[in-house]
Amino acid sequence: MNLLEEIEDHPLCGDGAMGTLLMERGVPPHRCFEELCLSRPELIREIHEAYFAAGARVIETNTFGANAVRLARHGLANRVNEINWHAAQLARHAAKGAFVAGSIGPLGVSSAHAADQGIDREDCFRTQMGALLDGGVDLIFLETFQDLEELLLALRVKHSLHHCPAICSLAPNETGQLPNGLTLDDAFGKLQQNDAEILGINCVNGPKEALRLVEQLARSEPPLAAFPNAGQPRYYEGRYLYEASPEYFAEMGALMAGRGARIIGGCCGTTPSHIAALAKTLAGKKSASVRKRT
Asked: If DSSP codes are grouped into helix, strand and coil, which group holds residue 105?
């Protein structure tokens, strides 16, 4: 059964955060997290395995910023293929039958800046996606986008490379708006017109806020994914704390599934404990019915 068929039958549990977990384990925030796939593969594999053991059925690669633009800030622009391929292999070997999602975030530059600097945004996405696909991912997870046009560009590149599904996930504010004022409903409509297979939201300041958005958006096609943070972060004694407990996170996740979300996982601040609690609440649930988006 492929991923789209499986989520028609029952909701899938995604994994949780990578970056905040790496920092908890002593990796300094200025470090290039994606490069750890090469220099500390055992650490990345251990995190993947912890999420898989917790019950995650969708494991994301450690490649959110592994594009040429972001890697150039660390002097690694010429290692895009190497990092992404190894990241896919690490997740593939740890997943043991779960779906592996190739994580791709925004490039971190505006279209105007890219034009001024001679950056080919389409080529940046194509190179990263190609390496992830060569490494064996089952789907592409386009996440934390706030510029719809950039997300649409990345989606078109995906369609040109492979028939695998993509999660097109935006990071709106609590009211469901993007920085330019575009609503999620309008953004999702444009994504659907461009043959997006799965729509999504991620980040969002906590599972309760994500639930409110899911209640507005779900029970529609294409299917919906939700990966909220573990609450709004609070800075305390040199570190950021996320206050949503695993039990509360799981309770909200179960409600999201009841409202029609098909893939539910965690973003910043979530841990294997959050995912274990979530997987337990999702076990045995059937996917809620949906209606056609108009």
From this structure: coil
In angstroms, the CA 225 to CA 227 distance is 7
Range of the domain at 258: 3-282
- Residue whose entry in the numeric block shows the structure tokens 């601040």: 269
- What residues form DSSP beta bridges with 198? 167
- Cβ-contact 231, 274 below 8 angstroms: no
List the beta strands (DSSP E) in 5-86.
12-13, 58-60
CB 102 within 8 A of CB 141: yes
Residue-wise pLDDT for 15-36, tens only, equals 999 999 999 999 999 999 999 9
Distance of CA 198 to the CA centre of its chain: 12
Residue with tokens 């695993």: 246
Mean pLDDT (whole number) for 49-67:
98
CB 71 within 8 A of CB 38: no
* 34 in a structural domain: yes
CA distance to 5, 48, 75, 193, 224, per residue, from 127 (Å) = 28, 24, 17, 25, 27
Cβ neighbours of residue 165 closer than 8 Å, sequence gap 6 or more: 3, 4, 139, 140, 197, 198
Q: What angle do CA 172, 174, 179 make, to 5 degrees?
A: 40
What is the number of structural domains in the chain?
Answer: 1
Query: Which CATH number characterizes residue 80's domain?
Result: 3.20.20.330
Instruction: Name residue, tokens 């409903």.
Output: 185
Per the structure block, which two tokens stand in for 282?
């999702």
**pTM for the whole thing?**
0.95
Does any domain span residue 29? yes
Q: Is residue 290 part of a domain?
A: no
Encoded tokens for 18 = 């990578």
CA 149 remoteness from chain centre: 18
* 292 domain-assigned: no
Task: To the nearest 10°, report the CA torsion of 74, 15, 60, 73.
Answer: -10
Average pLDDT of every residue of the chain: 94
- Joined together, the tokens standing for residue 272 give 């294997």
